[in-house]
Design goal:
The protein is mainly β. It has a single domain, classed as Maltoporin, Chain A. It has 4 helices and 37 strands. The strands form 7 sheets. It has a 22-stranded antiparallel β-barrel. A hairpin with a 4-residue loop joins strand 27 and strand 28. The longest helix is centred in the middle third of the chain and has 20 residues, at 315-334.
């Protein structure tokens, strides 16, 4: 169990957000790399879509809280998840696993490893995971939230000498699913128009009925693959490690982004990411009074992402029914458009972003034994990051392209200059949802950011005795600027004058942010690690601050990206395990947090920009606890059994800032499993997740063109199943 890590799946199969101690971002908006860095077998995975594969033979999953810039070369301003898998074995081993579950789930996994020569071994693994959807479409489409994914992975291990090891890993995986379920939680005044046009409106009083009225299957596809080579050479007093990796991730999606059964707004999108990384490390070896590690890391990535937003057959009837028909027809006549030209079906806005990112870092740590019991650790990291971004657009949405203040009507004057119609101009401006974007680079906006920073860490660890340690840490972290690669990207207000002087502004030009500046984190920790005869206990008190926290808020068709001036959290995290008897083990841990926006002016609130300074950030649970009981038993005759149950509790918290405060999340989930293993290699396991059918929302958002309405993503209902495996 991990006590400080929160994993939140969001609106597509490719979107999963990791947070540690309440700090985390990076999901959804492709331009934002996560504050929590994910490393798999030493290779940095820059986006959630490249992190969610099923990995075989896990050796270690390590969650490191706080900035880790002096140990890992790439963005880790809030923490690190490091996953390591077993390499190939020179002794033949194999495992096959079959599983079934509710919603017609079928699982198949396999693994095989053996030697080819005395110096060369290999392994191959693969898996298949299929499941029917648990959300029923009430408009005749396929069920949603299904599973359809597979993966394959191969490794080779070459050890020509005792001191040299070369490990090659190649993997490939695919996902083809319909995700994710959207619930109606608050129906605003426009819901009446949906009903009047024959649309299906779901019951907001039964938000977890798992029914969908979307008129477009939310198709998600992901193809992810890569290759890495790790070379380890052990010299007399130090070891050299080199990790070279290339990865490619391609994803696409279809979405009904009006979130109703009417054909109003449909979006399609695709993203292609190619990433190359190279890391070198030199590490001292042996039991020395003075230990050290130095390293360098290079990162090069190209992101090509884009989407198309379409009006549908129901768009114009929807606005007509809202009472806008006379006004729209008048505007069409005055600007010499044919009737029903505004909000015509298949009017669209197509946007494509290209981002090139090159970064490098140098890092080092030194451990020095000040005495037999006191060790000091000092580290530093220098990071240099450069991004070049461009955007192209095709726009044929007629209404949003009109500037009612400057574009002349057939009478030769703008609409806002006609006295009888001037009062209606704000209403028309209010429905110009897809204004043309100002593309860049241009004469004013370079589309470039260049950031650099030196970060450091200091740690003192005192061994009271072999079972009791005390430590104190101070550390800083850094994450470079992140660009808003979504439809809501807008020029900075500070560039307005220059853009107007250069005559670059577009119709209905608005201002916001192109990118969020760097994050800079600082943490202070004081902790204890204790082991005793029948268990262990660890506790850490911490004070962690991120200046310029990169906030990305989903607003239905795009993302609002901004820097919070400062976000801080003071808290306690702890974990423990106790052998209550020879067979019964209790594990318990959690976090107690006191998070606050010390400064966040211009945050995206329910009704527009707000000042959240001094308030508690949404989505962070002040109290989170996980407790588990495991009973192990030797049944004799070479058979061993276990029964396990765990309970996850997270206190009530507002989901996100741009929804009403009554939309909260509180978690109380019970899981259980039991298994039997035999000396002949056969194992059987039964499991159930969310045994108590706990219900809560993962995230929430305001849908477009439906003022006063709000939607949310519900958690997964109870699932259960059984697996049988054979290993030799």
């Amino acid at each position: 169990m991990t006590f400080t890590l929160r994993v939140t799946p969001l609106q597509r199969s490719t979107n999963t957000n990791f947070s540690i101690r309440g700090f985390g971002n990076g999901s959804n908006n492709t331009g934002i790399e996560p504050s929590v860095g994910v490393f798999i077998d030493g290779v940095y995975r820059s986006r959630a879509a490249a992190q969610i594969g099923d990995l075989p033979r896990l050796q270690q999953v390590e969650v490191l809280s706080g900035p880790q810039s002096t140990l890992f070369g790439k963005n880790a301003s809030a923490g690190v998840i490091s996953v390591r898998t077993a390499g190939p074995s020179f002794v033949e081993q194999a495992k096959v696993e079959l599983g079934i579950g509710n919603f017609n789930q079928r699982l198949l996994k396999g693994y095989y490893t053996n030697s080819i020569t005395e110096e060369l071994a290999f392994s191959v693994s693969g898996g298949l995971n299929k499941r029917d959807g648990y959300t029923e479409s009430v408009v005749g489409l396929d069920d949603m939230n299904n599973r359809d994914r597979w993966n394959i992975r191969g490794q080779a291990l070459y050890q020509p000498t005792e001191d040299t090891s070369i490990r090659l890993i190649a993997d490939y995986s695919e996902i083809d699913e319909r995700c994710c379920t959207v619930a109606d939680v608050i129906n605003g005044p426009t819901t009446a128009a949906v009903r009047a046009l024959g649309g299906t409106v779901l019951d907001v009083e039964d938000q977890f009925e798992f029914k969908s009225a979307l008129n477009q299957d939310p198709n998600n596809t992901v193809e992810d693959g890569g290759i890495s080579v790790q070379v380890d050479v052990d010299y007399d007093s130090f070891a050299l490690t080199s990790i070279t990796a290339f990865r490619k991730n391609t994803s696409s999606y279809d979405s009904d982004v009006d979130y109703t059964s009417l054909d109003i707004l449909t979006e399609t999108g695709a993203t292609d990411i190619e990433t190359f990384t190279q890391e070198f490390r030199l590490t001292s070896t042996g039991d020395n009074e003075f230990d050290w590690m130095i390293g360098g890391f290079y990162f090069s990535e190209e992101v090509d992402t884009g989407d198309v937003l379409y009006y549908g057959d129901g768009t114009r009837p929807f606005f007509n029914l809202l009472g806008l028909q006379p006004l729209l027809e008048t505007a069409e006549d005055l600007y010499a458009f044919p009737r029903n030209a505004f909000f015509a079906a298949n009017n669209f806005l197509a946007t494509d972003f290209l981002q090139e990112n090159d970064a490098f870092s140098l890092f080092a740590t030194v451990d020095y034994d000040l005495s037999d019991r006191l060790t000091a650790t000092v580290g530093f990291s220098y990071t240099d990051d450069e991004k070049d971004v461009s955007v192209a657009q095709i726009h044929n949405e007629t209404l949003s392209a009109i500037d009612f203040d400057t574009d002349p009507t057939v009478f030769g004057v703008p609409l806002s200059f006609i006295p009888d119609l001037q009062p209606f101009v704000p209403t028309l401006k209010g429905v110009q949802f897809l204004p043309p974007q100002l593309v860049f680079p241009n004469e004013v906006e370079s589309g470039n950011t260049s950031d650099s920073k030196t970060t450091w860490s200091v740690r003192l660890a005192y061994e009271v005795n072999q079972n009791f340690n005390i430590f104190a840490t101070a550390a800083t972290g850094f994450k470079a600027s992140s660009w808003n690669l979504s439809r809501d990207t807008r020029p900075f207000a500070s560039d307005q004058s220059a853009l107007e002087t250069a005559n670059l502004t577009r119709a209905n030009q608005s201002y916001g942010t192109r990118y969020a500046g760097p994050e800079e984190s600082t943490v202070y920790e004081l902790g204890v690690k204790a082991r005793f005869k029948r268990g262990a206990f660890n506790i850490t008190l911490f004070d962690q601050t991120i200046e310029g926290f990169q906030s990305s808020i989903f607003v239905g068709t795009g993302f609002v990206l901004a820097n919070a001036g400062e976000q801080s959290t003071q808290g306690i995290e702890f974990d423990s395990s106790f052998n209550l008897t020879d067979n019964l083990v209790l594990s318990f841990g959690g976090t107690i947090l006191d998070p606050v926006y010390d400064s966040f002016v211009g945050a995206n609130g329910v009704d527009g920009p707000v000042d959240l300074s001094g308030t508690m950030p949404a989505g962070i649970h002040e109290r989170s606890f996980v407790g588990g009981l495991t009973y192990n038993v030797d049944l004799g005759e070479g058979m061993y059994g276990f029964i396990r149950t765990d309970y996850i509790y997270e206190s009530e918290a507002q989901i996100v800032e741009n929804v009403p405060p009554e939309l909260t999340r509180e978690v109380g989930t019970l899981n259980a499993s039991a298994g039997l293993s035999m000396d002949n290699g056969v194992s059987v396991k039964i499991w159930v997740r969310n045994l108590n059918n706990d219900e809560y929302f993962l995230s929430a958002f305001p849908p477009p063109i439906q003022s006063g309405s709000f939607n949310a993503y519900p958690n997964q209902p109870r699932t259960f199943g059984a697996t049988v495996s054979y290993e030799f």
